[in-house]
């Protein structure tokens, strides 16, 4: 069974995404801040990581940097799932190694699911 | 011009009152005071010069006047800074609130997606009806937030555009295809005569938004029967430097009294039109902002009851400059 790590501090968003991914047969690992996200990534070695950018303790950019610097984790595809859309944010995330940048408010749940399915490394 | 408009124009303090600035903080009034003092000082100095040929007195007068002017000048600079600050705070406020709104709106949208997608059980038709209403409201709110953020970015000069070389005709064809069903639902004939192909070097996604907005408007404001929207692309007669895209319709047209406000924020016509047609009213403001930032311009001709012709221009790509840009980009990437 494929594992997806979802790093998101907003509980309502955690719930909805987890629900749809679980229904589609994925095992969802949840993390509510940057540090927990990195810890769980190392422990569980998921097949895909969904990463918010605005997180407590360590922000998404930091987490992304550390993920890509870790030999065992750098090949896991990372989809940035955030509502942040400031000048240069998309470029920064992509240049740090994220494969896709999705703005939550502009994507249906089914569209997020489609993106996950197309990028996950089973 | 009647008396009311004259008095309105003479009310230089109106803008400052909006920002809560008093007389001594408002740049307009300070300019006025400074102007009066300069004129007064000149007259005074002239008379003193005539009466008292004594140079020391003249020098003393000039020094005093200069000091007064410097003090007022300093106040002026401060008042400008305060107006700029008020503006910046407003922009920051809009930006922060809009971003904050996105989180609950996402939660709302996704929860609805789960319910409407029947992933949490069956729903009866009545339930679907009301869930659809909530969904539509959610989508409208998300669009408004996006529009506000775009308006803010344009005003602050933070609007990011990524230029690339692409076919303008293909882009228009794509937009026409997407809007064909909406057009036929409103009994509007959507026509695009694809003749000569034109290439442009601008942000493809943003220009697509502009074209969609213009066609969307033309369809929405069309007549009930026999509506026609025609899009044409031409090279302007200016030695091949500009390309012009026109979206012409035979719809309601824009009443003369509103024509000046068309590109303003939140313009949507009078209450009658607002009732008939949906929208946030920010589309044209953003569209023109995008076109201007792309090196072009946007305008329109319109007659009430006859129709409108909205056009925008884009510069013809300079192939040498594009190659230079590509090289610079490659060098930047290689350095990283």
CATH superfamily of the largest domain in chain B: Histidine kinase-like ATPase, C-terminal domain
Quote the average pLDDT of chain B. Answer: 82
CATH architecture label of the largest domain in chain B: 2-Layer Sandwich
**What's the number of domains of chain A?**
1
**Distinct helical segment count of chain B:** 10
SS content category of chain B: alpha+beta
β-strand number of chain A: 5
Enumerate the spans of chain B where pLDDT stays under 50 for 5 or more consecutive residues: none
Shape of chain B: elongated
The separation of the N and C termini of chain B measures 62 Å
Helix percentage of chain B: 55-70%
Placed side by side, the strands forming the largest sheet of chain A appear as: 2-1-3-4-5
Number of strands of chain B: 7
Q: According to CATH, what is the topology of chain A?
A: Rossmann fold
Task: Summarize the main sheet of chain B.
Answer: 5 strands, mixed
CATH superfamily of chain A: Response regulator
Query: Approximately what portion of the residues of chain A adopt beta-strand conformation?
Result: 15-25%
CATH topology of the largest domain in chain B: Heat Shock Protein 90
Oligomeric grouping of the chains: heterodimer
Describe what this molecule looks like in 3D.
The complex is a heterodimer of chains A (122) and B (336). Chain A has five helices and five strands. Chain A has 122 residues and is an alpha/beta fold. Chain A has one domain: Response regulator (Rossmann fold), CATH 3.40.50. In chain A, strands 2-1-3-4-5 form a five-stranded parallel beta sheet, sandwiched between helices. Chain B has two domains: 12-159; 164-320, Histidine kinase-like ATPase, C-terminal domain (Heat Shock Protein 90), CATH 3.30.565.10. The N and C termini of chain B lie far apart (62 Å). In chain B, the strands form two sheets. Chain B has a five-stranded mixed beta sheet. Classes of the chains: A alpha/beta (122), B alpha+beta (336). The A-B interface holds A 10, 12-13, 16-17, 19-20, 23, 83-88, 95, 103-106, 108-110 and B 99, 102-107, 109-111, 113-114, 117, 119-120, 142, 145-146, 149, 153, 158, 160, 336.
């Amino acid at each position: 069974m494929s594992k997806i790590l979802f790093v998101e501090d907003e509980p309502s968003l955690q719930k909805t995404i987890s629900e749809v991914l679980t229904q589609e047969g994925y095992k969802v690992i949840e993390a509510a801040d940057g540090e927990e996200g990195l810890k769980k990534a190392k422990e569980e070695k998921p097949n895909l990581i969904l990463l918010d950018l605005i997180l407590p303790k360590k922000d998404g950019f930091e987490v992304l940097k550390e993920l890509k610097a870790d030999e065992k984790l750098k090949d896991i595809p990372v989809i940035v799932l955030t509502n942040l859309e400031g000048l240069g944010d998309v470029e920064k995330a992509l240049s740090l190694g994220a494969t896709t940048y999705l703005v939550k408010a502009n994507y249906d749940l089914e569209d997020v699911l489609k993106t996950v399915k197309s990028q996950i490394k089973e | 011009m009647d008396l009311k408009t004259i008095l309105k124009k003479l009310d230089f303090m109106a803008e400052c009152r909006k920002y809560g600035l008093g007389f001594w903080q408002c740049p307009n009034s300070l300019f006025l005071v400074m102007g009066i003092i300069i004129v007064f000082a000149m007259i005074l100095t002239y008379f003193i010069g005539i009466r008292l040929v004594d140079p020391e007195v003249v020098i003393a007068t000039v020094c005093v006047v200069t000091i007064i002017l410097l003090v007022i000048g300093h106040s002026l600079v401060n008042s400008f800074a305060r107006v700029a600050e008020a503006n910046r705070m407003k922009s920051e406020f809009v930006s922060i609130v809009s971003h904050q709104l996105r989180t609950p709106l996402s939660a709302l949208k996704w929860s609805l997606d789960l319910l409407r997608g029947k992933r949490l059980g069956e729903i009866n038709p009545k339930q679907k009806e009301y869930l659809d209403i909530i969904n539509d409201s959610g989508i409208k709110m998300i669009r408004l937030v996006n529009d506000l953020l775009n308006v803010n970015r344009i005003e602050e000069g933070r609007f990011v555009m990524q230029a690339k070389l692409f076919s303008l005709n293909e882009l228009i064809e794509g937009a026409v295809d997407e809007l064909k069903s909406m057009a036929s639902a409103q009994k509007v004939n959507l026509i695009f005569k694809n003749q000569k192909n034109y290439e442009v070097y601008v942000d493809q996604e943003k220009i697509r938004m502009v074209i969609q907005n213009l066609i969307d408007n033309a369809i929405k404001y069309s007549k009930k029967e026999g509506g026609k929207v025609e899009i044409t692309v031409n090279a302007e007669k200016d030695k091949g430097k500009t390309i012009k895209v026109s979206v012409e319709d035979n719809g309601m047209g824009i009443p003369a009294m509103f024509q000046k406000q068309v590109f303003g924020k939140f313009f949507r016509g009078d209450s009658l039109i607002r009732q008939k047609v949906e929208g946030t009213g920010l589309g044209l403001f953003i569209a023109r902002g995008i076109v201007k930032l792309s090196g072009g311009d946007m305008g329109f001709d319109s007659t009430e009851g006859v129709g409108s012709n909205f056009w925008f221009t884009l510069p013809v790509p300079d192939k040498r400059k594009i190659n230079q840009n590509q090289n610079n980009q490659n060098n930047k990437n290689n350095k990283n």
